[in-house]
Design goal:
Elements (H helix, E strand, L loop, with lengths): L1 E8 L2 E8 L9 E10 L17 E2 L3 E9 L11 E5 L7 E5 L4 E2 L6 H5 L2 H13 L8 E4 L5 H12 L3 E6 L2 H7 L6 E4 L6 H7 L5 E6 L6 H6 L1 E9 L13 H6 L3 E4 L7 H6 L1 H7 L1 H5 L7 E6 L3 H9 L6 E5 L3
Parallel strand pairs: 9-10, 9-12, 10-11, 12-13, 13-14, 15-16
Antiparallel strand pairs: 1-2, 1-4, 3-5, 3-7, 3-16, 5-6, 6-8
Length: about 325
């Protein structure tokens, strides 16, 4: 089968199209004929989702048709179409932990389904499970035009929260008003605390999503309300150190937490899926949440898809169409 593989070469992640054997599903896994796969910026940053060593199958989320079941798998039938997190999603076939497999709602296009798993499971983790975002609260999302950022905006609005977003593109912020963005702050710099405090009447943000990294961390803390919660979900700026204002942390009783699956076991990763299936999947199925797919690229144009993402030309997610 055709498959993309990644390897670290110095400060770059190299992606190559290779021939690979069709994988065999182990116990608890399903084999998918991949139909579409979502791109994620961390896949192309050394030390992010890609570590050094031998090349590895690329892609970490997608949607496909179930063609075979591993031992012990029940409740999933061959021929069904599912979406989920899986290694090797940029391939004609890939295996997925059956516990991660989510039935694709009938009205959801396959490209949109491929954009659901990583972004929305991450958002459910940081806004619902850890962030406890409630109706009427204020959410601040840095880099709101990213895949995770747009998913956070959409999810927060269904929870009844108010959303402030930052972006270097005023045009993207204007487009996100249609999805419910309450306040857009056109900046990529750590200079948005005053705008957040003004928008919230001095209250601050109850939950902050830092999808950019260390360069914005201190400013995110300055934005936080009493008993605010700050989720760090990425560091696309590659800044891995930041100052912490201990006095503010202490006085405002703040909570700082990370959102990552790097060190989690398969059991730990799949543990949050049932709650996601109950909390957010019905909203995706009925159209209350509609994943925003900016562009879909053919399978042989992964390099162009990556360039589009790294040049920040997209709003929401970029998807690779693997097969019909």
């Amino acid at each position: 089968m055709k498959s993309y593989a990644t390897r670290v070469d110095g400060a770059d992640v190299v992606v190559e199209l290779v021939e690979a054997p069709v994988p065999t599903p182990a116990a608890g896994q399903v084999l998918l004929r991949m139909l579409a796969a979502g791109l994620n910026r961390g896949e192309f940053i050394p030390g992010g989702l890609v570590k050094g060593g031998a090349s590895k199958a690329a892609g970490i989320e997608g949607a496909g048709e179930v063609v075979a079941l591993g031992a012990g798998v029940t409740g999933i039938a061959p021929g069904s179409v599912v979406m989920g997190r899986c290694a090797g999603a940029f391939s004609e076939y890939a295996v997925m932990d059956a516990r991660e497999a989510l039935a694709v709602p009938p009205a959801l296009p396959i490209e949109a389904a491929a954009a659901v798993p990583l972004a929305f499971l991450v958002v459910h983790d940081m806004l619902v499970l850890q962030g406890r975002l409630a109706a009427g609260e204020w959410l601040l999302v840095t880099g709101v035009s990213s895949g995770v950022g747009v998913a956070a905006l959409q999810t927060a609005k269904t929870l009844g929260a108010h959303v402030i977003g930052t972006s270097g593109s005023a045009a993207k912020l204007a487009r996100l008003e249609a999805l419910g963005l309450d306040v857009g702050v056109p900046t990529r710099s750590p200079d948005f605390a005053d705008a957040v405090l003004q928008a919230t009447g001095g209250h601050g943000a109850d939950v902050v999503v830092n999808a950019v990294g260390g360069s914005l961390f201190a400013e995110c803390v300055r934005c936080m309300a009493f008993e605010g919660r700050l989720a760090t979900v990425g560091y696309v700026d590659r800044v891995l150190r930041a100052e912490i204002d201990l006095q503010t942390l202490h006085a405002r009783r703040l909570t700082l937490f990370g959102v990552s699956n790097k060190l989690r076991s398969a059991d730990q990763r799949s543990a949050g899926v049932p709650a996601f299936r109950a909390d957010l999947l019905p909203k995706i199925a009925d159209g209350s949440i509609r994943p925003l797919v900016d562009q879909v690229f053919p399978f042989d144009q992964l390099r162009a898809a990556r360039a589009c993402m790294e040049e920040n030309r997209h709003l929401g997610k970029i998807v690779l169409r693997v097969a019909d």
